[in-house]
Structure formats: structure tokens, C-alpha cells
Specification:
The structure holds two protein chains of two kinds. By secondary structure, chain A is mainly β. Chain A is built from no helices and nine strands. In chain A, the strands form two sheets. In chain A, strands 5-6-7-9-8 form a five-stranded mixed β-barrel. A three-stranded antiparallel sheet of chain A has the order 3-2-4, with no helix packed on it. The radius of gyration of chain A is 18 Å and the shape is globular. In chain B, a hairpin with a 3-residue loop joins strand 10 and strand 11. Helix content of chain B is about 35%, strand content about 15%. The chains are: A mainly beta, B alpha/beta.
Chain lengths: ~190, ~425
């Protein structure tokens, strides 16, 4: 099982569960405001996520000095979906399986889109393209003595668009089909993919 | 483009798609023998075998060219093996074509085949924490349909796309595929049936997402000079005793093969990545990155077929048929725009008007598409070309597009492998 050098043990979590990052170095673990860790090219100032680049991805920039930076903690939904069927390993699913939502989120300052699961319990019926979300840490999975954390997006209540309204036109059609069930109970049947 | 850059398609062959549970080599061999027979050539006439690799069948799949060559009987011919994820078949075609146009060989056999597991495609085995494909499953549970669904929902938010439109793409393709003996799903379905199928990744339902299939496809390609000599020989040279079917049909030719990468910054989230490129740093619109094009036309998918049109000297308006990679019903609509059939946001109008159904102006996926086939990854881009070849020859019984003269395929492989093949007769 994976481990993390950035392990933290927040107060009040009780028991012996140690909270560790499910992946090393991709997000901060401390404080009330976790952030994704990206890279920024010192020369051309472009951003990269995840922070695994050893050279600048800009074809017109030959720089190899990438510095770690925290990315914006808020963004707006570029698109979203859910996983009605259990993804295959190496995803570690809850037993019994619980469908989850996933969003592609546009970060204004970085001008990039970053994927993340939505926090547990978020239904696609409640999401719209253009909605504001913020970064939180949440459990990805647990084993006997560890809780593995990953970044997720959480809807920001009735937050103002904050000048990020260039996608406001997206919202009209983005409410999605109205239906009663996400169909997750049928996950044992045929699963398809491309 | 000058005929000197054309490559003749002498033969096309396929093994039917399905879940047959046999070795991928079996499917490849069936397809290869069918293509050789269609060309009127023997295996030992072939000077290069160009295999499209599969990564789910162990080492023989990684060196597919040699695997097929051994199965056909070692002949000492040249060999190549290409991997480009979903674009592997097109990469194998590009490899064979380059050998022919460079004058290194006169005639080549291209083969791709796959045997797939049931269910979602999962990353190949082992714990690989430096592989974004492994990590996207582990950290996000992001399957391939996750990405298809993000595109679909985005499309619905930006344009007037409805759930009925998405289902109507499946309905159209199921009608086309019902007449195709190589298709796996050969039953025409209704909008109601599609909308009653279970949701997989909202807004995409089970019947709107491409399945994983077994299958094999092959092509015999040659130089135009070789084709002329060969067809003359088949005809006996005196007009009498002509028995091979090559004699009585138009010759299909590959006029262009596009194998493009995205341009930085690539601002649409692509499998298997966690994020797009950042667009904060302005990239000057130099001649290389096309100042003549609007922004959306520089997006990756839109650049794929355009490179083929430009190489062939053909305009999108000249296209009679298209085979596009409909990994989902919604993605087929995106392709209408990306291959230049219409402007952004107009695909639904084309679909609703019947423009892209057989009988319409530009039938899309007359084969039935991935919707009717499911995906046999390394064979699929070759199968697209097989269908276009049969359409251009007038041999697509039951699904023939009358008078088709120009066809284009479009396809996109994981990690940024674009591919498009343009054929003319």
C-alpha cells in the first residue's frame, strides 16, 4: 500500500487512523485551506499540474526550471459527470459501491482545467456548468490503520461569480436530465468502455 | 495532391467483431487472408507487413507485425509494429504508406486485431505511480466514459443538444450497422430503447457508449505503378478471361494520412490526464500555428482531419462519407464539427435533418460506427478505412452510399495521437 512522507495526524480524528496523502506531493495537507501543488515555469510563467514536469511544456520555451506553486483553491465547473458503475482497480471502491460525481474545474488565474471527484454525496442533478467550487481534502479509501486522502471539489454555496462569469451562458442548458436514480444498483451488469 | 503521392488500396478484409474469446492472431489472420484474396495476391507477394499493436495480449501483441508474419509463415519480408493507442491502426497504415511512397517497398500488408476483456478498460497491470493512466483510475476513478461524459455534458451546456439527440445518434448508427455483416450489434434500436438503457456516466447511457470488442481488419496497400501492373496482369492483358473482381470496380486510393499531435496549449481535457495545459502564456500565432484559423479550429480534434484535407488538397465540402470515432453518441456530434461538416454548435441540426444518415448529403458512420462494432483498438482505424474502401467501390451491400467518391476517417489515440485517412476513387 502507498505511504506518504507528508503524513499528518489532525487533532480530533480519534482512533489510530493515520491520515496520509494518496499521492505524494500533489496537494498540501496542512491548515484549513488545502491547495493543489502545481509547477510554474520561471521563464514563461506557464503552469503545470500534476507537479511532475522536469521541463517546461511550452514548445517556445526551453526552460527547465519549474518551481512549485499552490494553485487557486477555487474555480468554476467546466463540465461534470458521475460514475454509476464501479471503476476497475486500481480504484479502491467503497463496499457497497457508492456512485460519485466528478468535475472538470476551470481555474481562472492558471487558465487551466483540473479534474477531481466531487465531495461524497454530491449529485449531478445539483451541478451546473459554471458553478463555483472549492478544493477540499476527503477520504479516497481506508485500510486497517490508514486513511488515504485525495483532493475533491466542493460546491460553494451561493457565492458570487467574482468576475468569473464568462461562462454564464453555459448555465442555461447545464442542469442535466431529471431522473430519480443514478442507476448504480445495476453495476453488476454489463460494463462498457471505449 | 499529385497522383505520385497516392497509394492504392488493392485489398480490404475483416474478421467480424464480437466477443469470440479466441486469440487476436486468429482474427488478424482471417482479416489478412481476406484482404490478400480481395487483392488477388498471395502472402509471399507482400514486401512489408505492418502490424498495429495491442497491449492487452502479452508480448505477441507488442510485436504484432512479427506475430502476424510468423502466423502467415515466415517469408523474409520487412516488418513494422506500431502502437498509438486507439490510433494504432492508422499508425500502421501511415508506416506502410511511408515505405511505399519512399520507394522502399511496392506492396504492403497492414493488419490489426484485438481480443478484449469484458467491462471497462483498465490500466495494464502492476502498481505504476508514475503513469498518469494508472493514476487517473486510482486517484479519481476516472474511466474512459468519464471523459466522454465530460465532453457530452459540456456540449449540452454550450449548445442545444438534448438527450434525444444523443439517443438519435445511436438510432442512426444502429440502422446503418444492421446491414453490416462485420458489425457486432446488428439490431436497429429506437430512441425509447436507448433512453431506457442504464446511465453509465451522466448524461451517457449504456447504449451510447462504445463497447470493447474482439475483431480484426487488414489492408493490402501498394504503389500506383504496382497497382497498374497488377491489375493488368489480373486481367490477362488481353481483356479476355478476366475473373478477379478487382477488374470490375473502381480503385480506391489513399490520398492523405494525418498523424498530428495537439498544439500547445491544449485546452480540452484529454484522457488520461488530470489537467489541461495552462493558457496563461500567449503563444504567438506564427505561420506554424495557423493565424488564419479561429481559436476553436486550433483545438486538437479539429486539427486532425484538417491536416488530411490539406495534404490531399481536398475541401470538407468534397467529402461524401465519413467514418468517425464515435466512442460515445455525443462525440459523434463533436466530430461533425471537427471534420468540417458544419460550424461549432450546428451538429444537432445536421443530425436532425438526416444529413448524416444514409440517404443524406454526407452519411457518417455508414458502417454503423463504434456504436455497432464496439472497439477492437488496433483494428478499428483499419476497419474505418475498409468501410470507406468498400463504399468507394460500391461494394457495401445493404448500406451503400450511392456515388461516394471521397471518404474521410477520423480518430484520436490516448495521449495525443491524432489520425485521419482520406480516400478517393
Amino acid at each position: 500500500m502507498p505511504s506518504s512522507e507528508r503524513a499528518g495526524r489532525p487533532a480530533g480524528h480519534g482512533e489510530a487512523h493515520q491520515r496520509v496523502a494518496a499521492v505524494d506531493g500533489w496537494f498540501t495537507l496542512d491548515g484549513a485551506g488545502p491547495a493543489l501543488i502545481g509547477q510554474r515555469c520561471k521563464a514563461c510563467k506557464t503552469f503545470v499540474f500534476p507537479p511532475t514536469a522536469s521541463w517546461c511544456p511550452n514548445p517556445l520555451c526551453a526552460d527547465t526550471e519549474m518551481e512549485e506553486v499552490e494553485l487557486s483553491r477555487r474555480g468554476s465547473i467546466w463540465s461534470f459527470t458521475n460514475a454509476c458503475y464501479q471503476p476497475p482497480a486500481p480504484y479502491v471502491a467503497r463496499e457497497p459501491y457508492e456512485p460519485f460525481s466528478i468535475a472538470a474545474v476551470e481555474l481562472e488565474a492558471e487558465q487551466m482545467v483540473v479534474l477531481g471527484q466531487m465531495v461524497r454525496g454530491t449529485r449531478v442533478e445539483d451541478l451546473h456548468v459554471g458553478d463555483q467550487v472549492e478544493l477540499v481534502l476527503d477520504t479516497l479509501y481506508e485500510d486497517t490503520d490508514r486513511e488515504y486522502l485525495v483532493w475533491k471539489w466542493k460546491p460553494v454555496g451561493a457565492e458570487p461569480a467574482g468576475g468569473y462569469g464568462d461562462r454564464s451562458g453555459d448555465r442555461s442548458g447545464g442542469s442535466g436530465p431529471k431522473k430519480s436514480s443514478a442507476g448504480g444498483n445495476r453495476m453488476a451488469e454489463r460494463r462498457r468502455d471505449g | 495532391m499529385a497522383e505520385s503521392r497516392h497509394v492504392a488500396v488493392l485489398g480490404a478484409g475483416m474478421h467480424p467483431w464480437g466477443k469470440w474469446g479466441r486469440s487476436f492472431v486468429t482474427y488478424g489472420l482471417t482479416a489478412a487472408r481476406a484482404a490478400l484474396d480481395d487483392a488477388g495476391l498471395g502472402w509471399t507477394d507482400i514486401e512489408l507487413v505492418s502490424g498495429a499493436d495491442t497491449i492487452r495480449n502479452g508480448y505477441p501483441g507488442f510485436v504484432s507485425g512479427a506475430t502476424f508474419a510468423q502466423a502467415l509463415g515466415w517469408s523474409g519480408c520487412r516488418v513494422a509494429s506500431s502502437y498509438a493507442a486507439c490510433a494504432s491502426g492508422a499508425a500502421a497504415i501511415a508506416n506502410a504508406r511511408a515505405h511505399i511512397l519512399a520507394g522502399l517497398v511496392d506492396v504492403a500488408l497492414v493488419v490489426g486485431a484485438d481480443t478484449t476483456p469484458k467491462g471497462f478498460f483498465a490500466p495494464i497491470g502492476g502498481e505504476r505511480r508514475d503513469d498518469p493512466d494508472w493514476l487517473r483510475f486510482h486517484l479519481l476513478g476516472a474511466t474512459n466514459p468519464t471523459y466522454f461524459a465530460l465532453y457530452a455534458r459540456r456540449r449540452m451546456a454550450l449548445h442545444s443538444t438534448t438527450e434525444q439527440d444523443l439517443a438519435a445518434v445511436k438510432v442512426k448508427n444502429s440502422r446503418h450497422g444492421a446491414a453490416n455483416p462485420y458489425a457486432r450489434y446488428r439490431k436497429a434500436v429506437s430512441i425509447e430503447e436507448v433512453l431506457a438503457s442504464p446511465m453509465v456516466a451522466d448524461p451517457l447511457r449504456l447504449m451510447e457508449i462504445c463497447a470493447t470488442s474482439d475483431g480484426g481488419a487488414a489492408l493490402v496497400l501498394s504503389s500506383m505503378d504496382f497497382a497498374r501492373r497488377h491489375l493488368e496482369k489480373l486481367g490477362g492483358g488481353h481483356g479476355a478471361g478476366s475473373t478477379h473482381r478487382s477488374q470490375s470496380r473502381p480503385l480506391a486510393k489513399i490520398a492523405a494520412v494525418s498523424t498530428v499531435t495537439p498544439r500547445y496549449p491544449s485546452t480540452v481535457i484529454e484522457m488520461p490526464h488530470f489537467a489541461t495545459d495552462s493558457a496563461v502564456t500567449p503563444i504567438p500565432r506564427t505561420a506554424e500555428n495557423r493565424p488564419d484559423l479561429p481559436d476553436h479550429a486550433t483545438e486538437f480534434r479539429a486539427s486532425i482531419a484538417r491536416a488530411a484535407y490539406e495534404e490531399a488538397g481536398v475541401a470538407p465540402e468534397d467529402v461524401d462519407i465519413a467514418e468517425v470515432y464515435d466512442l460515445s453518441s455525443a462525440l459523434e456530434l463533436d466530430w461533425y464539427e471537427d471534420i468540417g461538416l458544419c460550424e461549432k454548435g450546428e451538429a444537432e441540426h445536421l443530425l436532425r435533418s438526416g444529413y448524416t444518415a444514409i440517404g443524406g448529403r454526407v452519411p457518417v458512420n455508414p458502417s454503423g460506427g463504434l456504436s455497432s462494432f464496439g472497439e477492437a483498438i488496433p483494428a478499428q482505424a483499419i476497419a474505418q478505412v475498409c468501410e470507406i474502401v468498400w463504399q468507394l467501390r460500391g461494394e457495401a451491400a445493404g448500406r451503400q452510399v450511392e456515388g461516394a467518391r471521397v471518404g474521410v476517417s477520423a480518430n484520436q489515440g490516448l495521449f495525443g495521437h491524432g489520425s485521419s485517412v482520406l480516400l478517393i476513387r
